[in-house]
Design a protein that fits this description.
Pfam families: DUF1501 (PF07394)
Protein name: DUF1501 domain-containing protein
Region (Disordered): 124-147, 217-262
Number of domains: 1
Keywords: Signal
Number of strands: 12
Mean pLDDT: 82
Structural class: alpha/beta
Largest sheet: 9 strands, mixed
Signal peptide: 1-33
Oligomer: single chain
Helix content: 25-40%
Length: 435
Amino acid sequence: MTRSSSRPAGLHRRDWLLHGAAALGALATPAFATASLPDGRRPRLVVVMLRGAIDGLNVVIPHGDPAYARARPRLAIARPGEEGGALALDRLFGLHPAASPLMPYWQRGLLGFVHASGSPDSTRSHFDAQDYLESGTPGRKGTPDGWMNRLLAGLPGPHSASRALSLGNTPPRIFAGPAPVAFLGTGPKALDPKAIDQARLQRGLAKLYAGQDGLSQDYRDATQSRQDMRRSLAQAAEHPRGMKDEAPSRDPSADAGAPSARSFAADARRLGDLLRADANTQLAFTSVGGWDTHVNQGGATGQLANRLGALCEGLDALAQGLGDSLQDTVIVVMSEFGRTVRENGTGGTDHGRGNALWLLGGPLQGAAGGRVVGEWPGLEDRALADGRDLAVSTDFRHVLAPVLRGHLGLDDEALARVFPDLPGRSAPALKLLRS
């Protein structure tokens, strides 16, 4: 880690290196694996991808680093206690005031962040960076499948047609691969009865696809997963939140077809209800667009604040929909890269490197919950990547790996298949889960 002269007064170098009250510790062991849960409960992982590269420096704000405010004369969020200021997390970091719906989870030890994390590949292309984040093989193009599909194939325990769920209208790269995945469109009518649900048509298709080939199996998996989801949603209490949608990002390619934060907020409670009602579903993925804020980003108020507020309302709704199942669930929120430390001439920020990765859920309590963990490289010029960006000090795979091992119960062999190129010796020791 780069030593920085900008650490806050009273924060000694040892505290700076081990920021987060000893949150850096032994790598999490499978203390919260499948076998440790009571009968009928299964550990879950929900991944929310923020397409377009959210500005992590204005989400988890390093207010204790003096270089932050100097680099952003118009966009910097004020210190905690000041007008429009950040919500205090600790002596170094604060949370954007628009993220206030998540503060109760922080206070209960259910929410944590890994700052200065990201991909080791230096691309600033949305397309390439999202591809690497979803394939799990940074820098290697042509990987045929996504890391969540490989994870699905390696999960211990019995498989079902609805064990993995993708929420959205576009099949994501992260679930590409041979393992079957259930798909649910956005909007309250996604599972309204359609022709495929008619018994007569299903009987005809069942005869047509009665063989043992891959296409026949795909049909049976799709039909079964749709039936499972409709049954689960019928059992779950519906609490729709009608919210007006907002304008998409200026760069549609950055969003890759992902819905806006407002759309996510409207769908999130339904997703939580579905996951709570269907004990078979262990993996879920969705994405949210609109984070490519090159122009008029805003500070405590404005474009980013509005979208961030809707996103956090959605995450709160997702957690409420999960109910008691939140205790068995880890929600990961990540984005393809961060944004430049310095604001640009059009009131925004450009493509950068390091970002803040979010973690939410019961298994974090007693470990990363209520902490910002990871090595903070600082924002002084000499510490910046390429002289302009927050450096990546934690590979995003080194955050996911302890979750897959310690929460979902993957063994070393299965984990190596999910992240085949994961460097091991240089990994920071992140204690993310309770033991």
